[in-house]
Amino acid sequence: MSFSSKVKEELAEQFPGGRHCLLAELAAISAMCGTFRVDGGGEEILTIHTENEAVARKCFTLVEKTYNIGGEVSSYTSIRSNPETGSRMYYFLAQGRGLKAVRNASVQAVCCKRAYLRGAFLASGSVSDPRKSYHFEIVCGTEEMAQYLQYLMTGFQMEAKIVRRKKSYVVYLKDGAGIVDMLNVMEAHVALMEVENVRILKEMRNTVNRKVNCETANINKTVSAAVKQIEDIAFIRESIGFDKLSEGLRDVALTRLDYPGATLKELGELLNTPVGKSGVNHRLRKLSEIAEKLRDNQGGTA
Mean per-residue pLDDT for 135-163? Predict the structure, then answer.
């Protein structure tokens, strides 16, 4: 089962306590994949088509809890090019008076907005496996519906965006934090914990990688500096020897040649007269300056 299906299975078991929230969730589902009509006797008929059995099952319970009227869930197979395969479609049908309240449901309270978003996702949403990527979307038939869902999501501090996809409009989230917030709003707490665990693991891996890259860069920088220092010291030795250097510079030069991989701190501790990192760095810079002058003017003295 896909992660998206698991989220919908979880949401299919979530039922708000108030009738106004039941209506809001049913209103979202019907707006996304339902139709209303009135028969010759004046009774209102709500039909909802969906590929997800859990959605049809939830519509049955929502109507039952809200109106205490009969509903029916059936399915049929839509045969496509291959007679042996097809996409199973479920349709829910409710018939009775008062169903127009679904179309006129008020979505003002925060709890009703949560319910509406939950219904919209159940009817026409999907979310990718967080181990692969972060992507949450709800496909809408009209731009007005997409803008309305974006408005609701923005009210919960989510940066939802809209993109046109063929004849549809897609409201989507691309960041892990936004998807976690959306799952929390819809009350998919089990799925939320799964996404959070993946996010934590990814963040730990990224942190480790950053530290390794930083340490590798520092090591490369240190090695490069040490190689340059040894080259300068060797050039001074071959050009004028160490006798013309001051005692402190000669001590650092000889110690660096003996311990090419030592850090500045370690070099300072290895000197005949130990000094700190800044002192070692100052002497090495001085040796570098001497080497540069000698390169510019062969035969110069310290």
Answer: 94
